[in-house]
Amino acid sequence: MGAMSDDLFDLSGKVALITGGSRGLGHEMALAFARRGADVAVASRKVENCEAVAAEIAALGRRSLAVGYHAASWDGADELAAKVYDHFGTIDVLVCNAGMSPLYPSLVEISEDYFDKVMGVNLKGPFRLSALVGTRMAEGNGGSIILVSSIASQRPSANELVYGAAKAGINNLTYGLARTLGPKVRVNCLVPGPFLTDISKAWDMDRMEPVFRANYALQRAGNPDEIVGAALYFASDASTYTTGTTLNLDGGVR
User: Would residue 222 count as lying in a domain?
Assistant: First the structure.
């Protein structure tokens, strides 16, 4: 008999590692996983921010770990994986959520350094960390990898071309890793549109709201906690026959 619906999203006894977990969508996922019974490692550049989230997780009665991590660092991925495995002994769910998309003045003024940094954080880091953790999952008891892309991977605006190209690589990597790491490891991808996270504080909402009404079926940006259902689906036994999938969470952009 299949799992009861109440048990499908249960993460009890699981260990999750979330990069970019100290704020925004990563923070929401970290707390959601902990509420469903997971122990959670939170990684981002500023370890003090990770420690604050780890304290929230501990307050929910789950084990937690805060790790400083630069997502563009190849060696940093090795060090992060080693720390989490040393602390918890396993990783059952990996969420590669760290990302960056700084503005640039014009296309021709994009520097090589800018290009390398955006590609490093958004593509190189997730590749290396997924390779390390996914290989250990495949050699052990399996697991779930959740990559986080962006609607810019499909419809990049004029000021996010490098970011969009990197995230398009994430979409491709999702399918490739699913084929490489199966059958014991599932690899899926969240593709968010605009969400009201910290980055949205810089938006001119008077200008953006008419854009949402005209171009999005739901006529608004997403609230951070609206990422949770999809993340829990991919992380848990609710998605045991889902892999290599990209799921748009974009409010029905036209």
Answer: yes
Catalytic residue among 69, 104, 163, 233: 163
Q: Is residue 254 part of a domain?
A: no
Q: Which of 124, 144, 149, 167 is catalytic?
A: 167
Question: Is 163 tagged catalytic?
Answer: yes
- The CATH number assigned to the domain holding 121 equals 3.40.50.720
- The Cα–Cα gap between 90 and 79 comes to 15
The answer to whether 238 and 9 are in contact (CB under 8 A) is: yes
Does the annotation count 167 as an active-site position? yes
Q: Flag whether 1 is in a domain.
A: no
Task: Evaluate whether residue 2 is within a structural domain.
Answer: no
Number of structural domains (the chain) is: 1
Query: CA 126, CA 108: separation in Å to the nearest integer?
Result: 27
User: Residue 111: which domain range?
Assistant: 7-249
Q: pLDDT tens across 170-204, in order?
A: 999 999 999 999 999 999 999 999 888 876 566 66
Contacts of 126 (CB under 8 A, 6+ apart): 19, 71, 96, 98, 147, 170, 173
Of the residues 44, 150, 236, 239, only one is catalytic, namely 150
Whole-model pTM over 0.90: yes
